[in-house]
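Reviewers of the previous submission asked for a worked example of the structure-prediction workflow described in the proposal, so we include one complete record here. The input consisted solely of the amino acid sequence. No template or homolog information was supplied to the procedure at any stage.
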Amino acid sequence: MNDENAPGPLVELADVHVVHKARSGGLFTRDRVYALTGADLAIEPGETVGVVGESGCGKSTLAKVLVGLQRPAAGTVSCAGRDIWAMRDTERRHAIGSNVGLVFQDPSTALNRRLPIHRVLRDPLDVHRVGTPAERDERVRELLDLVGLPAGAANLLPGQISGGQRQRVAIARALALRPRLLVADEPTSALDVSVRAQILNLLDDLKQRFGLAMVFVSHDIQTVRRMSDRVVTMYLGRIVEETRADAVPGGARHPYTRALFSSTPGLLSPIDPIPLVGPVPSATRPPSGCPFRTRCWKADDLCAGEMPAVEPDGEGFFRCHHPVLSGATDRELISQAQERS
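From that input alone, the workflow returned the following structure tokens.
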């Protein structure tokens, strides 16, 4: 399955839905949480796709679907052109393990605290029976060197090294089987500010060195913009826009994408957010029509009555009945939002 010459996307989602059951007010009643709805996404070799959105929008669920940790209620997840959930369990584990690596948010909980680092890194090699025992030990030494850790770290426990070093170990483990795609779910949010840049630079270096594709999930919008080729915006479990990273924010067409980027300070400009009115709706009872309509200054009866169709926009797309004009300034959008409030 780890065929570098395989044509097409590395991983592709087609109309994927994830629905969880959550206990509500009654003892025997359960609400349905629509964690992911109608997700379509293709990750091409060598590209970085950034995923942004507020907490609870479905970013982490999307990441789990991409690496086979979450089985969708509907839709297909294809790895190297094959539906992973139509495979036998052992075949699926091999397909995902040899093609996709995952870096979790918090390395303190992602690593087994009782295992020395050389065991943490060797485990994927043992499970997938890669090479001889001697070759596996050599691979562990290579991995430590790749992520900038000394050879002596192999005998330490995760609790004996710093948070930034633990994340380096987590990255090394994700690369153990030489995957073609790395999915990083908030990889720097649990780290000190001084360490974040080091980890981001490491990820970027590894991407360039090995031609990795990457899915970078983060609340840090400016970092996503810097690291990515494409930016995917999620709202209430839906992908509402996909656009080139160099086109945001000015070229973004969905009102939510523009509001999201306006709430993040740039290096040379202060925060001047586009105001959004009202709380984020519940994922158990999403609004009719467009999910963003309850907070959008452009919303009208059409938005309440119909889910917007996918509208192509250059190399990307958006879902909006009343998209923002390309090139509209934040000041213009702030004025429009204030007039409607």
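The two ends are 54 Å apart (CA to CA). We consider this example representative of the routine output the project will generate in years two and three.
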